[in-house]
Amino acid sequence: MSDTVRFAGPLQAMQIEEGYDPIGWVALAGEGAETVAAHELARRLELGKRRGFGSVKVTARIGDSRWQTSLFPQKTGGWFLPVKKPIRLAEGLDFGDDIEGELELH
After folding, report:
1. Quick one: which of 31, 33, 15 has its CA closest to 73?
2. 54: DSSP letter
3. Which terminus has fewer CB within 10 Å in the chain: N or C?
4. Residue 47 CB neighbour total at 10 angstroms
5. φ/ψ of residue 38, rounded to 5
6. Cα separation of 55 and 70, whole Å?
7. In 3D, which of 21, 24, 29, 22 has the Cα closest to residue 12?
8. Which residues pair with 45 in a beta bridge?
9. Rounded to the nearest 5 degrees, what angle is found at the Cα of 48, between the Cα atoms of 30 and 69?
C-alpha cells in the first residue's frame, strides 16, 4: 500500500539539548493527517503490530530534495515530520518559512 499526501505549513524549531542546533519539523494536520492515521491503522491491522512510537515510514519531498524518514504521531493530534539540517540548507529554508511538500507513505 502506498499513498501520497501533500502538506504545507511553517518550518518550526525544537531545541532538544542546549549547545546543539534545533531540530526542524513541520506539523501535519487536517486531511493529510487523517490519511496518515488511516494508513498506519491499516498497516497495523495487516501486520498485527505497530512500528516504534507509532511511526510511519515515508519518502519526503520538499523542492528538489527527497529523503527517507518517518512521521511520528503528536499527543495533541496530527503528525510530526522532521526536516534534516542538510535538507533545510539545500532548500534555503529558515525556521518560520512556509513550506510545501509531498509524502509517499510506505
Report:
1. 33
2. G
3. N
4. 9
5. -65, -40
6. 6
7. 24
8. none
9. 50
pTM above 0.85, yes or no: yes
Cell numbers given for 102: 509531498
pLDDT at 1 over 60: no
CA 106 – CA 10 distance, rounded (Å): 24
Q: What pairing do the DSSP bridges indicate for beta strands 79-83 and 4-10?
A: unpaired
Determine the residue type at 28: L
Count, residues in the chain: 106
Each residue of 24-77: pLDDT tens digit?
999 999 999 999 999 999 988 888 777 777 899 999 999 999 999 999 999 989
Would the CA dihedral through 29, 31, 35, 41 be positive or negative? Answer: positive
Q: Say if domain 4-105 classifies as CATH 2.30.30.240.
A: no
